[in-house]
Description:
- By secondary structure, this protein is an alpha+beta fold.
- It has 9 helices and 5 strands, in the order ααβββββααααααα.
- It has helices at residues 3-10, 16-28, 94-99, 101-113, 131-139, 141-148, 152-163, 168-177, 179-183; strands spanning 32-36, 39-44, 47-54, 59-63, 87-91.
- It has a 5-stranded antiparallel β-sheet.
- The model is unreliable at 117-127 (pLDDT under 50).
Amino acid sequence: MNRKVQEYLANAKNWQAEMILLRNLLLDCGLVEDLKWGKPCYSLNNRNIVIIQAFKDHCDLGFFNGSSLKDAKGLLVKAGEHTQAARQMRFTNTQEIENIKGIITAYIKEASALKETALTTTVPTKMGWIAELEQVFLKNSAFQKAFEALTPGRQRAYLIYFSAAKQSQTRVARIESYTHKIFCGKGIHDCDCGLSKRMPNCDGSHKILKK
Length: 211
């Protein structure tokens, strides 16, 4: 058992009993436990498999590549409209977990057994890139190389943000404002000031530097 996870659960104000139940199931499946992004995370052979998350209305098991699971019971849901590979299995009380412990274990084992080829998130193709980004790539091949070196999830997050702007000039401005971050290999939500307490995510600590 991981000491940091022990402390996290001991200090949890919400969903403590539910998270402990889920944790026991994950450990019984032989996964390696660690605290990543401030949450209990479970991996196998250095591959993230599932994460325990506590929200206001529920706690859940977040399967990093849940879209690759069969989900015969229809228990998995998308976290948001633009979520690609990840899926959540949500719970609101311990009895819900107790009732399907065997099924939860089966999902965990299936996720752990996924082949490497099934763990590759689909990268938006070049045809799907917005025209403004294409123009920047034509002028700056180094920037294109840096963008293509980002993880699929980071690429997708940037593409969603850039393309959401209605006007072309706004899309260009958005690309320019994140050029440095992309060259640094960071995602749109990653910390680049080094002060975040929720690494690698930004928690707004950079605002201190502006005061």
